[in-house]
Specification:
Strand order of the largest sheet: 2-1-5-4-3
Number of domains: 2
CATH topology of the largest domain: Alpha-Beta Plaits
CATH architecture of the largest domain: 2-Layer Sandwich
Oligomer: single chain
Strand content: 15-25%
Length: 260
């Protein structure tokens, strides 16, 4: 019997009716780090954590008494060095109340499970990054032209079905080339970013705010009347009229015109 059970790559225990270990195979001795004579006659509770012993008392043995078998029970054993090792146990009970334990070390399985979780999280993050690359303008953080076309098309179709109104605003920075020529392209990027933040600050939850291209921006505002759309446009104009960027005043001077 010893040589037969020692050939298994899983731990095996025989526990008597007083819950003392009477037999352990070689694999289990290697897992736990005990010598065979040390483990013999040791109380079963000595090799399990406190939480596992509570589970064994409250669930495993009552189940064995009723069903004579408990399958794939998750427990934690304690090695001779005090290390905790997760195991999956299958236990059977005979008429003399002797129990036969098969313990499978699932440390690698738990590690693999954790790696799968981490891989899934990484894939989700990469998927989100790819989505942002496909839909977001990297300079301003606004929607790009492609996503503008997608969302505005849906908004216009919805408005047509519901017979509701949609306002469309096109914002263009006049003389933007002069800004780049005078202060440099890095400063021009700051100007575009500032305008993007201003537009985001003014938009409602369901509005579409996008950079159409270059210095052109678009706002699509569903479910709004002419007067409220005009008020929002005027607020945006006022917000940028006296804008100071990096210590430079009047950046949008000559650009703050509202055309209806």
């Amino acid at each position: 019997m010893d040589s037969f059970l020692d050939s298994f790559h899983s731990g095996h225990l025989v526990v008597n009716s007083k819950r003392a270990i009477t037999y352990s195979n070689k694999h289990l001795l290697t897992l736990l780090g005990w010598k065979k004579e040390e483990l013999s006659s040791m109380p079963l509770s000595n090799i399990f954590t406190k939480a596992s012993n509570i589970f064994i008392d409250s669930y495993v043995y009552p189940l064995l008494i009723n069903e004579f078998y408990a399958e794939e029970v998750q427990l934690t054993v304690i090695t001779y060095q005090g290390k905790k090792v997760p195991v999956v146990a299958s236990i059977s009970l005979d008429k003399e109340h002797t129990t036969y334990w098969s313990l499978l070390d699932c440390s690698n399985r738990d590690k693999l499970y954790q790696e799968l979780i981490e891989t899934k999280e990484l894939l989700e993050k990469q998927s989100q990054e790819l989505l942002e690359m496909a839909t977001i303008d990297p300079l301003t953080g606004l929607l790009n032209r492609r996503e503008l076309n997608n969302r505005s098309g849906r908004l216009f179709s919805q408005a047509q079905r519901n017979k509701s109104s949609v306002a469309l605003m096109i914002i263009d920075i006049d003389y933007f080339k002069n800004i780049n020529d005078t202060y440099g392209h890095a400063f021009g990027d700051d100007v575009l970013q500032h305008l993007g933040k201003t537009l985001l600050k003014s938009h409602r939850e369901h509005d579409v705010v996008a950079r159409y291209g270059g210095e052109e921006f678009v706002l699509v505002l569903p479910d709004i009347d002419d007067a409220n759309a005009l008020n929002i446009a005027e607020k945006i104009r006022c917000d940028i009229e006296t804008t100071k960027i990096n210590g430079v005043n009047g950046v949008f001077q000559g650009s703050c015109r509202l055309s209806i």
